[in-house]
Amino acid sequence: MAAVHNPPSAPILISFPDPDALVDSLASFIVKAQKDSVDKKGRFTIALSGGSLPKMLRGLINNPAVKWNKWQVYYVDERVVPLDHPDSNHRACTEHLFSKVPIPSENIHPLDPSLLNDLEDLSDSYEKELIREFAQKDSARFPVFDLILLGMGPDGHTASLFPGHELLSEEDRWVAYVDDSPKPPPKRITFTYPVINHAARVAFVAAGKEKADTLKSILDDPEAGLPSARVRPVFPGQLYWFVDDAAAEKVVYPRTPFKL
Ligand SMILES: O=C1O[C@H](COP(=O)(O)O)[C@@H](O)[C@H](O)[C@H]1O
């Protein structure tokens, strides 16, 4: 009998009146994902984006429900710059979150700063970090993050997967590099779709009216194929959109009330 493949679940769109309301619910959502994972396997694997996301994680600061010593934090994408450079996603996450919470530094996995001059070695070494966390890489196996948090650029990019780029069709590598990012800086490493789409939960976070047209395209016209619309976690993974009403103002796709 032929194997039955369940189709991806429909994305869940949750819209909040303003970014502060979004921040609190996002923190509750992350804590719930953490609890489910820690109860099951004693560990919580999460991947973070840069851009506007790190600031939106402020609801985790001084939150007694967060078990920081259980977190293993990776970066969905990283700009190829020193770790203390203003463009670094690791620096942004450190400034907005990690410097304010008791997370052990060994639980955070930035890129290897000694490899900044060799993009291929850099992305291979980050892929090896994932292999260490999630076991051997083989053609049948992909890492399953407990939670991946994504942003969406006004051009529809997510991670460092940009419209029209050849990496949109990458099916094998877990981590890849770009040296021609249309958004500076040009050199970056990024998770590929096989990693993003095998997570247990993926949540986009997007706020502001400058994202309204793009969000409409992604949710109401996914066939247009913007990079963020290609995020469709395989069953039983679930995709969430945490947005504010300004970003969602043009979207017809149905909203779901927030509940844990
Ligand atoms: O360059 C990047 O952009 C995206 C989106 O950023 P945002 O500021 O529009 O939220 C971000 O998710 C990614 O990590 C980053 O490298």
Strand arrangement within the widest β-sheet reads 1-9-8-5-2-3
Q: What global shape is seen? A: globular
CATH architecture: 3-Layer(aba) Sandwich
Strand coverage percent = 15-25%
Radius of gyration equals: 17 Å
The fold-level CATH name is: Rossmann fold
Number of helices: 6
- The amount of helix comes to 10-25%
Task: State the end-to-end distance.
Answer: 37 Å
Number of domains: 1
Just give the CATH class: Alpha Beta
Given helix and strand content, the structural type is alpha/beta
Number of DSSP strands?
9
Mean pLDDT: 96
Distinct small molecules: the ligand O=C1O[C@H](COP(=O)(O)O)[C@@H](O)[C@H](O)[C@H]1O
Topology order in helix (H) and strand (E) letters? EHEEEHHEEEHEHEH
Pick out the low-confidence regions: none
Word description of this protein:
- Keywords: Hydrolase.
- It holds the Pfam family Glucosamine_iso.
- It catalyses: 6-phospho-D-glucono-1,5-lactone + H2O = 6-phospho-D-gluconate + H(+).
- Its EC number is 3.1.1.31.
- The structure is a single chain.
- By secondary structure, this protein is α/β, with parallel strands linked by helices.
- It has one domain (14-248): Rossmann fold (3-Layer(aba) Sandwich), CATH 3.40.50.1360.
- The chain is built from six helices and nine strands.
- The strands form two sheets. A six-stranded parallel beta sheet has the order 1-9-8-5-2-3. Strands 4-7-6 form a three-stranded antiparallel beta sheet.
- The protein is globular, with a radius of gyration of 17 Å.
- The structure holds ligand LXAUTJHC.
- The ligand O=C1O[C@H](COP(=O)(O)O)[C@@H](O)[C@H](O)[C@H]1O is lined by residues 49-53, 76-77, 89, 150-151, 153, 160, 183.
- The ligand O=C1O[C@H](COP(=O)(O)O)[C@@H](O)[C@H](O)[C@H]1O binds at residues 49-53, 76-77, 89, 150-151, 153, 160, 183.
